Amino acid sequence: MSAEALRALHVPGKPLVLPNVWDADTARLVEAAGFPVVATSSAAVAAGLGQPDGEGAPVAEMFGAAERIVRAVSVPVTVDAEAGYGLPPAEVATRLLALGAVGCNFEDTDHAGGGRRPVAEQADRIAGLRRGAGDGLVINARVDVFLGAEDENAVLAEAVERGRAYLAAGADCVYPILVRSPEVLGEFVRRVGGPVNAAPLPGGPGLAELAELGVARISLGTGLWRHVRGLLDAALDDIAAGKLPY
């Protein structure tokens, strides 16, 4: 599948659902289950490498893990590239294309400097990523203003401003991560004027409600990894207590 075909799967109200993976084995399971696209989770991939999220893992190891995932499946792969690991955006695009990815996540958090990058600066970075990729990557631009926000309504206007700017700069989809309020998310979808990615969260809208709100893409993010990890943790407790969990 080409990037163009992946873009076509971003349909408001009938969203592309992405159970994010962390290695070649989980990617194969997603493909075998019939999902048309594999997406990675940077936090889960980094944890598998023994490193923290937030660009704590070496870029070569993160891209190496992504390449192994791409090689393991026949469906297209979109890679969580965090904020680009300090690389020039055009180089991020070149590396992603070289390993065979057809999409990526790109954050506006500044992991080195702290906080979020100014809107214009991040829009310029997305434009550079687009120039480097041409039409070969589906860019999912993350909007991080809801991270840690006590009042989601208070940051909605900034989120919409960022989303519009990122779409204008060449992003294919925008991702207001960690929105829990269906009212706020619905308003964001209405006002931003382009495809929106969202995640099902505890206490927030589920898969069906996200579709009703008009999102075009649903990412499970770290959700599947945390669920599987919880099952393994419980199984290990059973074994430690002298019981086999299977």
UniProtKB/TrEMBL annotation:
Domain of life of the native organism: Bacteria
Family annotation (InterPro entries): ICL/PEPM, Pyrv/PenolPyrv_kinase-like_dom, Pyrv_kinase-like_dom_sf
Keywords: Lyase
One function term, GO molecular function aspect: lyase activity
Taxon lineage: Bacteria, Bacillati, Actinomycetota, Actinomycetes, Pseudonocardiales
Name under which the protein is recorded: 2-methylisocitrate lyase-like PEP mutase family enzyme
